[in-house]
RNA sequence: GGCUCGGUAGCUCAGCUGGUUAGAGCACGGGAUUCAUAACCCCGGGGUCGGGAGUUCAAGUCUCCCCCGAGCCA
């Protein structure tokens, strides 16, 4: 069955909770989504890449109080830190939405009205043990005396209040149907988890809190504010608004809903794959088309965290290693979806081997030969054509890359490009132009070989554009070319201009050498 | 406690519906080479595929039990 392709490919990172400054996990998610967004753009699709911050809830209010700040001040600070982080890493997001945006509040109200009109809002009494850090009720028995949150190791708080409930239970069948679609929840391993949960029977969940000033007021329900999770995900829709658009739900939806893909950490899969689609259905809005829950990062085998003091500061990492190196390491070495372990030695090995030695040196050595023997791109009588082994290799790499990006298999996509560079290096040693050039009768052959390898290197640069935008641009610049912008045109074999002069090469990436731990 | 997913070379992992001497990258050792960021290219060592039993002509690959780890739900 052919799916109708919407005009806009909307994809999102989570809206990061402003409880604390950005950590490496958020960077990881965002880098992955950035890569996918760049890939889609290179493939000629219109992309709407959304990220932002989720800023309401009791946890934020308390964190602000502890710092003697107004919640809004606190949110501004952290939110700015996120925006600055993305700018520093060169993230190509089209939107940065904050759930404290005035227009967001209006959309939440409109959304709520729709859900209420549908008869999906009821009053109920919520009793139980609550973890503020999770912003979640736990299943501990009411008779427990002083339970702790198993995740946060902090005391749970007893709550007994009147809340508004969303009648999630009404959507049991529809949610089951939705998540049974093969590609709705990925990776598949996590789908079973959600299926299990849903099979257990969906229960209505409370969507409001009383006595919580730091939240969006529930229209028509005086003292209630929305539970963070009810308003947060709507940020994906608010984000679609153009700067001059009115705060109107339908206008926003027309700008690019449904989202094609929500990329999130595995911990919030249920909210995105169950609660959120049901809320959309209730409001008469199409649910998102897919949710991908990736794994978590550890560091040298250990969980990262304040308590262990082994967190990896993203800004420091960026300063020391650079965005290219970190992007390469995280996306090339960790299967997206699985948990991954960050190891400093491994990072150095891979970055130095793959980027500096294999790809960087390929460019360097090839340009050096071209300059030395041909004063630029060689101009053989017969240009290597699209049947040249390297041309075939490049075409194959490109096809596989498409496939792998489609599966969010960044690791494989990275290896596709790397393989092409390895093939080019292998071709050089096989042809040994440095020997052949000594024989005047072989000048023509050398010209052909160098042209083929230079052209392959160009394609390596083009294919790298989504994964390593900066390094790709630096590589192409040394071939006298602009950054890759359109794969349709730029992936064809044979675009290097014969006879074009080449500047003296400079390493596109210095080998990393770290004396101290990151 | 129930369920799910893992346990394959020193490290990180591929191995689809069972079928030639179990693979890759990194690390390590050796060789070749000089165009190049002491880079590139080639070769090699190393694994009783968590343990045990079973099914089969044939099992990392299927079944059962056990051990270990992670997760989801209670």
Characterization of the model:
With 518 residues, the chain is an alpha/beta fold. The chain folds into 2 domains: 8-295, Rossmann fold (3-Layer(aba) Sandwich); 344-490, Isoleucyl-tRNA Synthetase, Domain 1. Helix content is 46%, strand content 14%. The chain is built from 19 helices and 15 strands. The protein has helices spanning 24-42, 58-66, 71-88, 102-117, 172-179, 188-199, 228-232, 235-238, 249-254, 269-282, 314-321, 323-333, 344-374, 389-406, 410-431, 433-436, 443-463, 469-478, 487-490; strands at 8-17, 46-54, 95-98, 121-131, 136-137, 157-166, 185-186, 205-206, 208-210, 224-226, 261-265, 291-294, 297-299, 302-303, 340-342. The strands form 4 sheets. The protein has a 6-stranded parallel beta sheet with strand order 3-2-1-11-12-7, with helices on both faces. A hairpin with a 2-residue loop joins strand 13 (297-299) and strand 14. Helix 5 packs antiparallel against helix 6, helix 12 crosses helix 15 and helix 14 packs parallel to helix 17 (443-463). The longest helix has 31 residues, at 344-374. It is elongated and about 90 Å long. The mean pLDDT is 90. The protein binds one RNA strand of 74 nucleotides through residues 139, 189-190, 192-194, 196-197, 200, 266, 270, 333-335, 338-341, 343, 345-346, 349-350, 352-354, 356-358, 360-369, 372-373, 415, 418, 422, 425-426, 428-430, 432-435, 437, 450, 505-511.
């Amino acid at each position: 069955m052919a799916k109708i392709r919407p005009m806009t490919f909307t994809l999102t990172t989570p809206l990061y909770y402003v409880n604390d400054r950005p950590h490496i996990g958020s960077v990881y998610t965002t880098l992955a989504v950035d890569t996918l967004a760049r890939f889609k753009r290179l493939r000629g699709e219109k992309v709407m890449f959304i990220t932002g911050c989720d800023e309401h809830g009791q946890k934020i209010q308390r964190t602000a109080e502890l710092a003697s700040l107004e919640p809004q001040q606190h949110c501004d600070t952290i939110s700015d830190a996120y925006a600055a982080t993305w700018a520093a890493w060169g993230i190509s997001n089209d939107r940065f939405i904050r759930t404290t945006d005035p227009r967001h509040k209006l959309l939440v109200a409109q959304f709520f009205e729709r859900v209420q009109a549908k008869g999906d809002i009821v009053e109920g009494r919520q009793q139980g043990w609550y973890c503020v850090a999770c912003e979640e009720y736990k299943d501990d028995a009411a008779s427990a005396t002083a339970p702790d949150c198993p995740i946060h190791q902090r005391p749970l708080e007893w709550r007994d209040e009147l809340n508004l409930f969303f009648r999630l239970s009404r959507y049991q069948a529809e949610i089951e149907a939705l998540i049974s679609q093969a590609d709705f929840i990925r990776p598949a391993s996590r789908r079973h988890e959600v299926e299990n949960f849903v099979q257990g029977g969906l229960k209505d969940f409370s969507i409001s809190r009383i006595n919580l000033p730091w939240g969006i007021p529930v229209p028509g329900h005086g003292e209630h504010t929305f539970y963070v999770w009810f308003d947060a995900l709507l940020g994906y829709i608010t984000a679609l608004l153009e700067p001059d658009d009115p705060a109107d739900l339908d206008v926003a939806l027309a700008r690019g809903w449904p989202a094609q893909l929500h990329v999130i950490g595995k911990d919030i899969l249920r909210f995105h794959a169950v609660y959120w689609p049901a809320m959309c259905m209730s409001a008469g809005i199409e649910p998102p088309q897919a949710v991908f829950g990736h794994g978590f990062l550890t560091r040298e085998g250990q969980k990262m965290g304040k308590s262990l003091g082994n967190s990896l500061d993203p800004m420091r990492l960026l300063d020391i290693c650079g965005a290219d190196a970190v992007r390469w390491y995280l996306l090339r070495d960790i299967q997206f979806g699985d948990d991954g372990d960050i190891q400093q030695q491994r990072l150095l090995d891979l970055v130095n081997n793959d980027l500096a030695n294999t790809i960087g040196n390929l460019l360097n050595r090839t340009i050096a030969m071209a300059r030395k023997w041909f004063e630029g791109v060689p101009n053989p009588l017969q240009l290597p054509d699209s049947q040249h082994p390297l041309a075939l290799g490049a075409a194959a790499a490109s096809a596989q890359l498409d496939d792998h990006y489609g599966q969010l298999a960044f690791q494989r996509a990275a290896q596709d490009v790397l393989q092409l560079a390895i093939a080019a290096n292998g071709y050089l040693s096989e042809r040994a132009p440095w020997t052949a050039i000594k024989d005047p009768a072989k000048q023509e052959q050398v010209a052909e070989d160098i042209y083929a390898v230079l052209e392959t290197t160009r394609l390596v640069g083009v294919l790298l554009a989504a994964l390593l935008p900066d390094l790709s641009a630096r590589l192409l610049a040394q071939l006298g070319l602009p950054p890759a912008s359109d794969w349709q045109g730029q992936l064809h074999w044979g675009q290097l201009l014969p006879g074009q002069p080449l500047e003296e090469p400079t390493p596109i990436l210095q080998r990393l050498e770290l004396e101290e731990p990151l």
